Please model this.
Amino acid sequence: MKTFIIAALLATTPTLLLAQTTTKPKPKPAVAGTTKPRTSASAAAPTRPMATPPEAQVEARANALTSNMQKALALNPAQVEKVRQINLTSVRGVESARLNYRQEVRKMASIVDDIGQARLSALKNVLSPAQFDKYQRKREEKMGVPNAQGIQGNPAPGLPSQGE
Model:
C-alpha cells in the first residue's frame, strides 16, 4: 500500500512541477479611443467547481485500510464500523484535495496533513490505549520515524561519537 502511494506520488510529481511553471499572457496594448469600461465581474476570483473522487475507489481504499487494521489490531465489530467511517472520511478528503489542489502542492500537503491529524485524533477516541499504541508503532515503522532507542546512523565526519 505504501509503495503504491509513493509510486503514485513519484509518477505525478514531474507533471505537478511543470504545471507550476506557467507564464501569464501579456496584456495587449490599448488602442486610442477603444477603451472598455472595466466590470466588477472580472475582478472577482473565478470559482471552480470542486471535483469529487470516484466513490468506488474511495470505498475500496477505505475498506482495505479497515481490514488491515482489523487484522493487525484485533478490532471488535463496533470498532470496525467506526474505523471504517473514519477511513472513508479521510480517504475521501485526501482524494478530493489531490483532485482540487493538484496545482497548489503546498496547500494540498497542508490539507492532507490536517486530514491525517484529524484521523489520528478520531482513531484515538475509538481504539483502546493498547490498540492505539500498537497502531502508532506500526505507523512510525512504515513512515520511517526513528525511535528513541539508541543512536541512529553514523556521526558526522570529524565529530567525535558519543562513546569517545
In short: The chain has a mean pLDDT of 77. The CA atoms of residues 155 and 164 lie 12 Å apart. The radius of gyration is 24 Å. The helical segments are 2-19, 55-73, 77-100, 105-126, 129-143.
